[in-house]
Design the sequence.
């Protein structure tokens, strides 16, 4: 069996260390990707540190923002050739037959095994799936996306989760000309949301904790920027936005966000903080407001997002790090101190 070099963590309080993992030989319709870059998503941190509860299989190799080059293809692969630039996101398999899969929403697979996530799931070989903090991965061709030439691989990696997580709700809830959209949290997801919403033609506002990222927010396409640390911010934003997407990874009161919507406006949560939040239903009834969630996107929509980003010159702003930097990078993400996505260069694993 082929081996890959990977970085794994062995407990919620552990540290990442270099290791070797086994990858399967490609089946007839599978491709093997040489991973060039893997983004660090805040979900990797929530999972690795056990913040979403038990059910984490250690040693854990996270990573679901994967960009690389096809090294090998199975005998019946039609969608990729050796040398193609390709990406893998949050999942690597699903039943392919349920209503969700048939409707292009494989992330909500209702089949017997559900959606097989890129790490911490059981793969078709019966082994626990291991993610992108590794030098290669074997994946069924239907769960691999094409990375357009216009986006460099390091900037493309975060699109596979952060990009699609923002693109899908912006499309679904109609971000576009004449719409006032607020993105809450200017982190990995948030900075993609600003760029994508602006490219869709919406008027974009950033709502951040501080003004430290204001210049970047405006450069990436926002026309307004607000800091929640300033006392009158929420008051000044009442009834302002048609659509608000919150990416906040920590505690945030949904009542203040709902009050910032226009009548009939929609708040979409994509952030997954570890603790439940309380919601007074009055915040929905007054102003007939909507509160929804959204989770990544299907494969076809992820490809659409990649093509959209290429067409509009959009990519993630990244800080490229080595495998040895992962532990320090996790602490910096938690401290909102990343501009705006750490991307691990897997060439450093074998150097
Ligand atoms: P990130 O880079 O850490 O960004 C989160 C941002 O939230 C921070 O930059 C910060 O923005 C803001 N924030 C953090 N703590 C806060 C607090 N206590 N109060 C107010 N604002 C706070 O994380 P990410 O990778 O973008 O992920 C964000 C969240 O989305 C995570 O919970 C992650 O698990 C989840 N996620 C969900 C999906 C999905 O499909 N729904 C996909 C990927 C990730 P400022 O510095 O601007 O204040
Ligand atoms: Zn993610």
Sequence:
């Amino acid at each position: 069996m082929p081996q890959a070099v990977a970085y794994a963590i062995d407990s919620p309080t552990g540290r990442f260390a270099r290791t070797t993992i086994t990858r399967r030989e490609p089946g007839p319709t599978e491709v093997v990707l040489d991973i060039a870059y893997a983004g660090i998503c805040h979900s990797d941190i929530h999972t690795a540190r056990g913040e979403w509860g038990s059910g984490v299989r250690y040693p854990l190799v996270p990573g679901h923002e994967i960009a690389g080059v096809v090294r090998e293809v199975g005998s019946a692969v039609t969608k990729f050739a050796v040398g193609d630039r390709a990406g893998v996101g949050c999942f690597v398999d699903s039943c392919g037959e349920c209503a969700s899969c048939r409707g292009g929403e494989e992330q909500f697979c209702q089949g017997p095994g559900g959606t097989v996530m890129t790490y911490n799931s059981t793969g078709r070989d019966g082994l626990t799936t291991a993610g992108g903090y590794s030098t290669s991965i074997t994946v069924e061709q239907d769960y691999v996306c094409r990375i357009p030439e216009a986006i460099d691989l390091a900037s493309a990696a975060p699109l596979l989760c952060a990009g699609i997580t923002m693109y899908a709700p912006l499309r679904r809830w109609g971000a576009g000309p004449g719409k006032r959209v607020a993105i809450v949290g200017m982190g990995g997801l948030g900075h993609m949301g600003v760029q994508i919403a602006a490219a869709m033609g919406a008027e974009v506002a950033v709502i951040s904790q501080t003004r430290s990222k204001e210049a970047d927010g405006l450069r990436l396409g926002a026309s307004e920027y607000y800091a929640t640390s300033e006392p009158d911010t929420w008051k000044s934003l009442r009834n302002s936005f048609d659509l608000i997407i919150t990416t906040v990874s920590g505690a945030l009161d949904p009542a203040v966000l709902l009050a910032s919507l226009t009548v009939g406006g929609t708040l979409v949560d994509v952030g997954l903080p570890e603790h439940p939040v309380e919601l007074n239903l009055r915040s929905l009834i007054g102003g007939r407001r909507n509160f929804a969630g959204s989770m990544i996107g299907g494969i076809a929509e992820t490809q659409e997002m990649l093509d959209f980003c290429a067409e509009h010159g959009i990519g993630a702003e990244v800080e490229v790090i080595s495998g040895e930097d992962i532990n320090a990078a996790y602490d910096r993400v938690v401290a909102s101190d990343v501009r705006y996505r750490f991307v691990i260069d897997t060439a450093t694993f074998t150097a």
Residues 41, 43, 64, 161 surround zinc ion (ligand 2) (CB under 6 Å).
